[in-house]
Structure formats: structure tokens, C-alpha cells
Design brief:
28% strand; disordered N terminus; globular; 31% helix
Length: 452
């Protein structure tokens, strides 16, 4: 159980954006929940001068533990610069660790080996342990297969061996997970979910996008491609800075609904689309918790859709109560409610009021569809259904244009020739670089905030 000091819990706020008005017979209520965390006093990854673990309440930021999992399979030797860049990137990440952070380095093949500090332990970051870890990195060689589930299970054991606030992993792979079954990887992800967060990176173009994104999604981290291994060091530094900026873990989005109200779905919609619907855990009568992972100073948006009972014109009801919950620090203590918001339903015969779509809801409905049609379009292209691919990717161009998602629009333009973005008229490019296609697929779930 996490050991939090209240002085280190950032201030959370919940804002609800919705059109509460329903026509007679209307039952579906949609709301965008904006959750903002501020005042956590994050360091942004800059290591303070002191060393050693942080006593609770010392004001030095949260205790954290990080495990870096580096692919050392045989393919990392082709070309040889790939493993060298991976070693350099991991060394750069170590330099970004805050002093006092617990850490370990795992070499991943068809087996998992904790190469530093070893023997199932974690080191404490300071100048000496960083130097020792870099020496261990320099001795890494490539050889063997790829079984990412075994890497994650070892990381879980290492991270679970210490009592810290924040537990985080980073996975780097350059190939497909060919030395364990998909079921083995899924079981490992299920076992690790909720125990630590994890970022995943694919280097080069020989890895499977759906495997890497599944890791990040299950463990509430980020996924990305680093097509050129020379870019790994900068990417690893950014990832570690983000991890060091986290102040509180295990925050849950709790939904309480009255009798007769059904939860249709719960999704994170910014900064990326992550469906949380099936991750609900019971939290008492008519209440359920949805995991949100670790937080620093940041803001995220969630789309909540509920189905309410039919009611007559003029009636009003509470459709759902949304709370941010921090688990208790010790057994017997109640969880801490960080903030709350209300989702309402009001039945009206005013057609203008009941047919108006809230701008935030409309925007994120479009962003979720954008992610979906990109995936469908790329899958159709791979299967040879070029008409289907053109239609789906054309719709993606249209949605990206309407929502102002310029980054996704640029990625789409590397896969299709855009004739008219407004109507979604496109032509598939005859030749597409594999890295461009993989980048579009990997980043398809990244969204832009609605212009309020």
C-alpha cells in the first residue's frame, strides 16, 4: 500500500462539461470530466543535491522506484549501433533520476536478468550507483530471443520489493514478442496492472505496434516509436523527466450511480484515448473505481456515458457522481476524496436545449472516432482492401482537420495524398515508408484538447 504524506498530495479539481437536457424518452447522458492536478511541487526530473531515500514529509518529492528494461535480443546487433544507442539512452535516463530514487536495469531476451544492481535488489540513485550502472550497461551484449512478459514480471518483483510512492517501468524493444505466446504476455500484463505504470518504446521498424501499445495501455503509460535509434537518448530523457515529475500514484476515478442508471463506458480521451470501461473494480453499492495511474502537475479529460431511466418532462435527476479517490495509506483508514463533480439529467420539451451537443463532448467523440478509423484504415491497407482503406483514412483526414489535430494530420499526409481535407477526399500513396506507417499507427490515440 502506498505511503502518502498529505503535504505531498497535489490539489485535484474536477470540472464537468455536458448538456444535461434530454428530450422526452431520452436516456443517454454524456459528459467530459476534466481532472487537473496542481501544486504537487514536482521537480521536473532535476535531481536535488541530497541523497538517500526521502523520509515521508521531508518536502523532497515522493519516493520512487524505476526499472529500465532494455532489449538485448540478437536483433539488437543489426546494426551494432542499435544496442549502443540503447545503452546510451539508458545512461541518459539514469542521469535524469532524482537522487534517492530506487532503480534497477534489466536485460531482456527470452529471459530476464537484473544486470544492475542484481540479486533481486534495487539500487539508490547517487553519483556512485549511476556510474556503476553505466559500467554494467557497457557490458551488455546482444543474443537470444524476445519474451517481454518475463521482463515485466521481473520488474514487478523488483518494484514490489520496496515501499515507495511511485513505481514505474520503461520497456525498450526492437522486435516482435516471438518467444512467448500472446496469452503469456497478456497474463503478465494482467498480473502487473495496477502495480506499476510503464512506458513502452519500439526502436526501428521490426517490432509489432499492437504489442507495444498494448503494454502501455494496460500499464497506463505512453507508447511511441523511435524509428532512428539515434533519437533514443532524447526520448529516454523526456520519459524519465516525466516519471520524476509524478507526485501521487493509484488515483482512481470513482463513479457512483443511482438505482436504475447504467454505466455505458468510461474513457480517458486526453492526452490519449484509453478505454477504461472494463477496468472497473467495485467500490461499494452502485460505485466503481477506474484506474488513472500516476499524477504530477497535469490535466486529463475523461468521457463518461451513462444510461438513465426514462422520465417525464420537467423531471431532473443526478445521473452520476464523479470523485477522485486516493487509497488509504494504511489498513483501516478510509480512502481520501480529492475532488468531486456531478453529472445531471434534466428532461425538457425545449428542442433547442435537448438537441444541442456540448462542444467538449462533440470534440472528444470525434477524437475517439479519429483513433478508430486510423486503425481500421491501416488494417484495411495491410489486408489489400484499398477502397476500405481510402474511405477510413479519408474520414481520419476530415476529423483531424475539423478538430485541429495538426500533428495527426501531418502523419496522415505521409500515408495518403490529401485532395480535400474538409470533405476527406484522399488517395492512397503508392509507396509509404514503413516508419511513417508505424508512427501513424502508434500515435493514432494521441488527442488534442478542445478549444474552450
Amino acid at each position: 500500500m502506498a505511503n502518502f504524506s498529505k503535504s505531498h498530495v497535489p490539489q485535484f479539481s474536477v470540472e464537468v462539461y455536458q448538456n444535461a437536457y434530454l428530450p422526452e424518452g431520452g436516456r443517454e447522458v454524456n459528459a467530459i470530466i476534466t481532472v487537473t492536478s496542481t501544486g504537487g511541487g514536482t521537480t521536473g526530473g532535476v535531481a536535488p543535491a541530497d541523497t538517500g531515500p526521502r523520509p515521508v514529509g521531508s518536502g523532497r518529492g515522493p519516493d520512487a522506484a524505476v526499472v529500465l528494461m532494455v532489449d538485448c535480443s540478437g536483433s539488437m546487433d543489426y546494426p551494432p549501433t542499435k544496442l549502443r544507442n540503447a545503452r546510451d539512452a539508458t545512461a541518459a535516463a539514469l542521469d535524469t533520476l532524482r537522487d534517492g530514487t530506487r532503480f534497477a536495469v534489466v536485460a531482456g531476451t527470452h529471459l530476464a536478468k537484473d544486470v544492475y544492481p542484481g540479486n533481486g535488489r534495487l539500487a539508490t540513485a547517487d553519483a556512485q550507483t549511476r556510474a556503476q550502472a553505466k559500467d554494467a550497461l557497457r557490458r551488455l551484449t546482444a543474443g537470444g530471443g524476445t519474451a517481454i512478459g518475463t521482463w515485466l514480471r521481473l520488474a514487478d518483483r523488483l518494484l514490489g520489493s520496496v515501499d515507495v510512492d511511485i513505481r514505474h517501468g520503461i520497456v525498450l524493444t526492437d522486435g516482435r514478442n516471438e518467444h512467448e505466446s500472446p496469452e503469456d504476455l497478456r497474463a503478465a500484463l494482467d498480473a502487473c496492472a495496477g502495480r506499476f505504470t510503464c512506458d513502452a518504446r519500439g526502436v526501428g521498424t521490426d517490432w509489432e505496434v499492437k504489442e507495444v501499445t498494448a503494454i502501455a495501455s494496460a500499464l497506463l503509460g505512453s507508447a511511441d516509436i523511435v524509428a532512428d535509434p539515434a533519437g533514443l537518448a532524447a526520448d529516454f530523457t523526456r520519459m524519465m523527466e516525466n516519471a520524476m515529475g509524478k507526485e501521487v500514484a493509484d488515483v482512481a476515478l470513482r463513479l457512483w450511480n443511482p438505482v436504475g442508471v447504467e454505466i455505458v463506458f468510461v474513457k480517458q480521451v486526453a492526452p490519449t484515448v484509453v478505454d477504461l470501461t472494463d477496468r472497473r473494480t467495485g467500490a461499494g453499492p452502485r460505485a466503481g473505481d477506474y484506474p488513472t495511474g500516476s499524477w504530477g502537475d497535469e490535466s486529463r479529460d475523461y468521457h463518461v456515458c451513462v444510461r438513465v431511466p426514462e422520465a417525464g418532462i420537467g423531471q431532473e435527476m443526478l445521473a452520476a457522481r464523479v470523485s477522485l479517490i486516493l487509497p488509504s495509506a494504511s489498513a483501516g483508514e478510509p480512502p481520501q476524496t480529492l475532488s468531486q463533480g456531478l453529472v445531471r439529467a434534466v428532461w425538457t420539451d425545449d428542442m433547442v436545449a435537448s438537441t444541442s451537443i456540448n462542444p467538449q463532448v462533440a470534440h472528444y467523440t470525434g477524437q475517439a472516432e479519429l483513433a478508430q478509423v486510423i486503425q481500421q484504415g491501416l488494417d484495411a491497407r495491410k489486408s489489400g482492401d484499398f477502397d476500405g482503406a481510402t474511405a477510413k483514412l479519408g474520414r481520419a483526414v476530415q476529423l483531424a482537420s475539423v478538430s485541429g489535430n495538426a500533428d495527426t494530420a501531418k502523419l496522415l499526409a505521409k500515408v495518403v495524398d490529401v485532395v480535400d481535407a474538409v470533405t476527406g477526399t484522399v488517395r492512397l500513396k503508392a509507396r509509404v515508408a514503413e516508419a511513417d506507417e508505424m508512427t501513424l499507427e502508434t500515435r493514432s490515440t494521441k488527442t488534442v484538447r478542445v478549444k474552450k
